[in-house]
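Isoprenyl transferase
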Amino acid sequence: MNMRDLVYRLYARRVRGRLDHAQVPKHIGLILDGNRRWARASGGTTAQGHRAGAEKIEEFLGWCAETDVEVVTLWMLSTDNFDRPESELVPLLGIIEDSVRALAADGRWRVHHVGALDILPDNTRTTLKEAEAATSDNTGILVNVAVGYGGRQEIADAVRSLLHDAARKGTSFEELAEAVDIDLISEHLYTRGQPDPDLVIRTSGEQRLSGFMLWQSAHSEYYFCEVFWPAFRKVDFLRAMRDYAARHRRYGG
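Structure:
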C-alpha cells in the first residue's frame, strides 16, 4: 500500500467514525453521470466508461448497506438516451442487462424496475422482469433500476394509469375530478408504496436533476459531486452522507 492509499483509508475511516447513523437517509436517488467523460480522460472507449460505471454499482450498494440505507434508485438510462446513436445505445443496453443480472445474482438486493417498459427492447424487458421476479423475496436494499426513465414520462404514465383505473371502476369524470389529490397520483407512480428519496446524489459536477424523480424529490436534499461516476470513492459517499446529516440536524432542530 502506498502512502496516498494509506492517507485515503485513514481519512475515510475518520469520516465514517463521525457519521451519525441516526441521521442516515433511508432512500438515496443516484444519477450516475460522467461515464463517457471519464473514459475520454482515461483514454478509453465510451463502452469501457459505461462498463466501469456499471462495475461501481455493487460497491456503492455495499457502502449503502453498511450505513443502513433501505432504498436506492439508480438512474441508468433516461428516455433522452434513446436519441443516442445506435452504435452507442446497443452496447449500453447490453451493459445494463449484464449489470441487472449481476445485481440479481448477488443475492442481497431486491431489484425493481422503474421506467417505461414499452420503449425498451425485448431482451432488456425480459432481463428486468426476470431480475425482479428472482429477487422478490430478498430482504436487503430495495434497488430501483431506472431504465427508460424520465420524470415527465413517469407523471404522464401515472395520470394515464389513474384514468384507466377510474374507467375500469366506472368512475365518472366529475367523481374523479373531486377525488384527484397528491396521494392518489402518488399511488400510480413507478415507485408507489416506497418512501420518497431523502437524498439525491449526482456525480460529474453537473448541478441539475435533468428530470430525475420530479414528483418524489420535492423535499429531497441534493448533493452534487465533481467526481465522474466510475471514479466515485467511498470517501465521496461518506462526505455526501455527512453533508446530509448536517443539513438534517440543522432543519430538524
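The CA atoms of residues 30 and 239 lie 15 Å apart.
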